[in-house]
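Deliverable D2.4 — example input (structure tokens):
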């Protein structure tokens, strides 16, 4: 485990010193390949040499369209050794969204998995990125045969030495998910990545034999910090699957030797709604680091899958984990208390602190230099908008109890204003999701002819289940306050999500052409008490 006083402030020093310290101990585990700490240091040196020969140097940006394969960490840490910047892009992007992010970050190079070539190829002529490499084994037939392979980038010819990055140097540019608008590139310094990851590990109930497993994408800060760096900082093994598969999740985790897993709310709900299996509690996982577990699901999830939940909260800008339950003092329903590098508060719309138990916006600020993002790339106005009155505004509503534990309520921008009441979609969704036929729901506000908004629910039913709109409306009348009962309901085949498993509410708000059921037209009356 981590020695007292052993600190790292840049990725280059981390990889080099851990390579010397841990030697052949497994650092990273993928399906079909494992990299020891020594191999990781050696191979990233070789990739860094190749990048130098290609002209990639300090401050240059290299974009990556890569799945969870060994190529991702090799590129990530090799760029750090060149004091260059990784720009990992969502592997689900295509068309205008992909073009936007590539144009926005202006990379000097890009590495594309062959399986994603079809999404990237139509954009090449317009973007004209100077250096291109392809990766992966299986791929598109349209990949140009003369394009250099990432595997050939390695070189044993030592490049001119580059000093290790400063803690304040950008390590990566991570794009926000874009659930409420165009993505913004958050500039993440080395210090933030390492300090956040260190403190996550300190609250994760780690042991010397722990293996941290994730099926979340490496282009997201969760897999980078909660799994990869948290494991490396504590001399452990990080394991990866390319994608989340609910039906085989626990078996895959066990096959990787996992003791710790990272889960988001959609993954929790999907796993919980899988048919019961005799093997649900026979895997190797002991701890689940989660975000979004509801009070209703939490105890039963722990019992069924024989894990301990440690709930947390985070954002790309302020560390993938900003608040987290203490490992030996977990409170069901809480997102925990602030990590050591950050100060937090709950404020009203005028940025005045509110009393315990009162809903307000979560605001945070660093206690140490460079432990939060440096700003949004080329968007100073958005940076200033987020940083007001010396606090970073998360845009999330929370409450805080007298003991300093925080409780998530909902996204501030998602709150629906109806007939003078502020409604949290989360509360409505939680009620609808209790219906036995419902797999998942997303609630949004839609314009009302009476002003403000009406509530609309998009519902995805479980495979093979049936339920009428009338039945679901009546269920809501029974289980929700009168002012929360949806006016409209629409069935959908699947909830649109980002690759990080976040519901794309803005897509549903703009959806047209579906069959919409109107509660009032069906004659279902909601009466005030």
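Example output (designed residues):
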């Amino acid at each position: 485990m981590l020695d007292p006083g052993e600190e790292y402030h840049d990725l280059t020093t981390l990889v080099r010193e851990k390579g010397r310290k841990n030697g052949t101990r497994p650092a990273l585990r993928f399906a079909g390949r494992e990299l020891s700490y020594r191999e990781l240091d050696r191979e990233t040196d070789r990739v860094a040499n190749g990048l130098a020969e290609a002209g990639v140097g300090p401050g240059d940006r290299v974009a990556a369209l890569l799945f969870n394969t060994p190529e991702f960490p090799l590129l990530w840490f090799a760029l750090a050794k060149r004091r260059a910047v990784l720009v990992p892009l969502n592997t689900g992007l295509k068309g205008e969204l992909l073009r936007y992010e590539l144009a926005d970050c202006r990379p000097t190079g890009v590495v594309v998995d062959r399986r994603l070539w079809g999404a990237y190829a139509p954009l090449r002529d317009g973007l004209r990125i100077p250096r291109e490499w392809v990766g992966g084994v299986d791929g598109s037939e349209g990949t140009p045969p003369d394009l250099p392979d990432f595997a050939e980038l390695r070189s044993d010819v030592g490049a001119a030495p580059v000093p290790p990055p400063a803690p304040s140097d950008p390590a990566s540019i991570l794009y926000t998910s874009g659930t409420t608008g165009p993505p913004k590139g958050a500039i993440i310094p080395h210090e933030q990545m390492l300090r956040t990851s260190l403190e996550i590990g300190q609250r994760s109930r780690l042991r010397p034999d722990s293996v941290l497993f994730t099926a979340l994408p490496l282009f997201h800060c969760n897999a980078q910090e909660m799994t990869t760096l948290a494991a490396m900082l504590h001399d452990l093994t990080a394991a990866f699957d390319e994608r989340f598969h609910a039906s085989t999740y626990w078996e895959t985790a066990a096959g990787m030797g996992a003791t710790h897993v990272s889960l988001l709310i959609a993954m929790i709900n999907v796993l919980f709604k899988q048919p019961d299996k005799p093997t649900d509690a026979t895997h190797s996982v002991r701890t689940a680091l989660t975000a979004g577990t509801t009070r209703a699901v939490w105890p039963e999830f722990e019992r069924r899958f024989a894990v301990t939940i440690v709930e947390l909260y985070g954002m790309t800008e302020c560390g993938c984990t900003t608040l987290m339950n203490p490992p030996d003092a977990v409170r069901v329903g809480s997102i925990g208390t602030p990590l050591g590098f950050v100060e937090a508060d709950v404020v009203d719309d005028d940025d005045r602190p509110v009393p315990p138990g009162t809903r307000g916006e979560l605001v945070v600020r660093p206690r140490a230099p460079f432990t939060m993002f440096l700003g949004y790339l080329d968007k100073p106005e958005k940076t200033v908008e987020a940083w007001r009155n010396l606090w970073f505004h998360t845009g999330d509503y929370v409450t805080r109890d007298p003991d300093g534990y925080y409780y998530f309520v909902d996204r501030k921008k998602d709150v629906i204003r109806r007939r003078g009441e502020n409604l949290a979609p989360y509360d409505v969704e939680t009620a609808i999701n209790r219906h036995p036929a419902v797999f998942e729901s997303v609630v949004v506000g839609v314009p009302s002819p009476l002003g403000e908004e009406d509530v609309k629910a998009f519902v995805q039913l479980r495979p093979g289940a049936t339920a009428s709109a009338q039945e679901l409306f009546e269920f809501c009348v029974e289980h929700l306050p009168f002012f929360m009962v949806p006016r409209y309901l629409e069935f959908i085949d699947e909830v649109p999500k980002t690759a990080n498993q976040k519901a794309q509410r803005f897509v549903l708000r703009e959806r047209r052409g579906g069959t919409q059921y109107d509660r009032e037209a069906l004659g279902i009356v909601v009466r005030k008490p």
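Residues 1-5 have pLDDT under 50 and may be disordered.
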